[in-house]
Specification:
- This protein is of the alpha/beta class and 223 residues long.
- The chain has two domains: 83 residues; 127 residues, Pectate Lyase C-like, CATH 2.160.20.70.
- It is built from five helices and 18 strands.
- Helix 1 runs parallel beside helix 2.
- This is Probable septum site-determining protein MinC.
- Cell division inhibitor that blocks the formation of polar Z ring septums. Rapidly oscillates between the poles of the cell to destabilize FtsZ filaments that have formed before they mature into polar Z rings. Prevents FtsZ polymerization.
Length: 223
Amino acid sequence: MQSVVLKGTKDGYELILKETASVREILVDLKQLLEGLGEESEKGKDQLHLNVQMGNRLMSEEDKNDIIKLVDDYENLVIDNFLSNVITKEESAKIMAQNNVEVMSRVIRNGQEVNVDGDVLFFGKIHEGGKLIATGNVFNMGVIEGIVQAGFPDDESKLIIGNLHTAQQVRVGEQYDIVADRPIEDSEKTVVYVNDLHVLSYGKIKNLKEINPKFFNRIGGIE
């Protein structure tokens, strides 16, 4: 069996790599395959876009670059993506962190900074001068008198939900608001978000579908 098979799809073409083949075998078979494919592409003068399907295997960046260099020899052929059914441990840990909701019940005192990967459900208290910084969303069920940030460092799609009227400052991504300058309503149903004009705004949970449709669908909707 050849180590590389060409398959047509509705989106273009896939190069399917045999999972047990060595990179050397793949490069030899790929060169032979591309010679014929390049000739056909030359006749039609259309650029062919290829996705490389790796199946249940991972390839190093060096191996991927060897394949890209080989394809680049044929000006009418271009690789769009390398696709795999598996991911690295590092990628897995990152995804888990991003989708994890950490439950936190602690006191964050003046001068302390607590960082969270992913979402955080906060039941504690942040004193003035303390900071809670999350890469994901922040759901506040505690007391915030300091600074709270969602979407660190620059993700403006995240939200802060909960009572924030005693906070010093609220931040989403790179946008921030000093609460003392613009008091927030005393309500646990407050939603802090960045609007389409990249300005920090305030809304209500009942309007979450309009504020952030993706997040609304993610949590199954709130009626």
